[in-house]
Amino acid sequence: MSLASVIGEASAVSSGSLGGLERLTVEPAGWSDMNSVEACIDLVLLCCFVVGIAFFHTVKSRAEMLDRQAQVARKEEPEVDGTTRVVQHNDSPVPRRSSSSDQRAGHVGSSISTKVDDSHRRYNKQILSCKTFEEVLEIVSIAGSVLNEVNLATAVHRIAKYAKKEAGSVRNSPHWRRLLLRIDASCTRFAAQGLANTMWALATLRVDAAAERAMLDKLCDACFSQIMSFSPQALTNVAWALATLEMEHARLIAAIKDRCVDSFDAFNQQDFANAAWSLGSLGSLDEGVAAAIRVRVLPLLSSFKPQELTNLFWAFAVSKIRDEELMEAVRRVIDADVEAFSSQCLSVLAWSFAKLGCEDDPICSRLASGAISRIRFFNPRELSKLLWALATMQHRNDALLDLAASATAKLADQFSPVELSNAMWAFANFKFSTSNLLDRVSRAAVARRGSFPPPAIANVLWAFASLECRSPALFRVFAEIAVDRMHDFNPADLSTTVWSFAHAGLKFPLFVNSAFSESKRVLSCFTEAQLAVAEAGFRKLDSSLELLDDLLAVDLDHK
User: Fold this and answer.
1) Which of 227, 377, 453, 474 maximizes the CB count within 10 A of its CB?
2) 470: how many CB neighbours lie within 10 A of its CB?
3) Top-confidence range, 17-26, 35-44, 105-114, 524-533
């Protein structure tokens, strides 16, 4: 057999599957007519040729497969990936971010289509591959005005995702300022999902709402114009951003509320919780919307996560909407598994029941038992809120009070003035204290005396006086502060402070004279009860009879 004929047969086989190689054979009879060296050379060449053909087809098939995958990836390339924002705020947590499947470059639900060429896709891939916010800012600085709306929304989202705890570093970057300028110039062309992502990111990074008001107003106007294109998650993310930034945009808030009500059938548990929390924070959760939420969530409430249940109930409480059906359902969920609730949830739920006017509610004992098992996880804000709530509902649990007193003493330096005053107010209402608690709180208050507002001063002094703790150092420094800031004291704070000094038996003439002069100045603002408390205090502090006569001569008939 000649080499040419073998090559021809091999070429024919290569056009089919590799299984065709099984049909390629070399006749052994040819060996007798060939020189052995030539036969070896021919065979080697044949093998090389066949292997080369097979390799070529393998590489070609692989390339075609990768090309098809790349085309699919470009069609489904995510604008941003999903994250879950776990941020603390005053009373409850914040909502989730959208999942990556909801955030495509094609802008699901958007009425605006953005032309995306290969360069914009490459930039988006680069942004998505970044691992730090510095890397994203570097791309922003290099690409500059080349970035389109999708790239800008993706960039600001990734920055917020990576810099939640380093927002100050982001805001101080000149590249960040450049990005905000680009967003300001382009936001009217953003699609619905891009707007929601951008609003979430700016709120997460706590941008200065006053300084960036013009840009934020543009974003809000753009959100309003596309409100019908927003998904439930996007709606609640924008609402959360408005609440977090404390922005008043009445038109957009009203549109979000109406759109939420219209979309409730598509809401899941988290959507309901986030919508309620956001509207509650914005002061826009009215009776009608609350009733619509309640009807839909009652059958689902047992499947709510603890944080979702807490957000939902807090929204009703802060909006002063007492819904007995919802309250009873919340009680059942808590009672069934109180150990599932975090320290934050327990404190917020207790606060919510207290704000709704519940007194010694049966659920208090369950909340207290849950708090006992988690006491080591409570931070100052949570301790203060829990203690205030239980005292307001008049539910006493000595085991919890003992643990809470130890925790408060240990963390006293970390409490804010208002938190410290609320905690001490609660302990005083329970007539519960320890020497360690009083000593540590007194020292912490003296160390930060300048940061205490008048209501906190009045509460702390009332608590120490009620607990029969004189603490001269504490009363002295607060007397000096009160004299300097007497005009900031309202009648309630003034009467409480005067009573506290009198009950503790501590007389500081400068304070007494200053307090009495201020009392005469705002005499018409006192209620009868406040005036009675002030009278008792001044009488005990031995104020002059002439001044007392002036104070007691006020005609209360106009009240």
Assistant:
1) 474
2) 13
3) 524-533
Give the closest residue to 227 by CA, choosing from 244, 249, 205: 249
d(CA 260, CA 319): 17
pLDDT, residue 362, reads 87
Quick one: residue 449, left, alpha or beta (phi over 0 = left, psi -120 to 50 = alpha)? alpha
Residues 6+ apart with CB under 8 A from 270: 95, 96, 305, 308
Q: Which residue, 417, 425, 448, is CA-closest to 433?
A: 425
Mean pLDDT across the stretch 303-309?
A: 97
Tokens encoding 126: 């680069």
Distance of CA 260 to the CA centre of its chain: 20
The four Cα atoms 414, 419, 422, 425 give a dihedral, to 10 degrees, of: 20
**What are the C-alpha distances in Å from 477 to residues 235, 420, 458, 466, 507?**
50, 17, 13, 19, 13
Cα–Cα distance measured from residue 210 to residue 242, given in angstroms and rounded to the nearest whole number: 13
Q: What angle do CA 315, 318, 322 make, to 5 degrees?
A: 80
| Residue 491, CA distances (Å) to 258, 520, 529 in order | 42, 10, 10
* Residue-by-residue DSSP string for 514-541: HHHHHHHHTGGG--HHHHHHHHHHHHHT
Question: What CA–CA distances, in Å, run from 420 to 364, 381, 405, 433, 438?
Answer: 22, 9, 12, 14, 11
What is the dihedral angle through the alpha carbons of 436, 440, 442, 444, rounded to the nearest 10 degrees?
-170
Q: Is residue 544 over pLDDT 90?
A: no
Q: 3-state class of 78 per DSSP?
A: strand
Instruction: Determine the 3-state secondary structure of 506 from DSSP.
Output: coil
Q: Residue 386's closest CA among 363, 412, 354? A: 354
* Own/partner pairs, 7-13, CB within 8 angstroms, 24+ separation: 7/46, 7/49, 10/46, 10/49, 10/50, 10/53, 11/53, 13/50
pLDDT tens-digit profile of 3-57? 444 444 444 434 444 343 333 333 444 434 445 556 556 666 666 666 666 666 6
104: which strand partners?
A: 78
Tokens at residue 327, please? Answer: 């309250």
Secondary structure E strands in 304-381: none
Q: Give residue-wise pLDDT tens across range 192-223.
A: 999 999 999 999 999 999 999 999 999 999 99
3-state SS class at 104: strand
Please enumerate in sequence order all residues whose Cβ is within 8 A of that of 405, keeping only pairs 6 or more positions apart, or say none: 427, 432, 433, 434, 436, 437
CA of 251: how far to CAs of 185, 217, 256, 297, in Å? Answer: 22, 11, 9, 27
Instruction: Report the pLDDT averaged over residues 92-121.
Output: 48
- HEC assignment per residue over 164-208: CCCHHHHHCCHHHHHHHHHHHHHHHHCCHHHHHHHHHHHHHCCCC
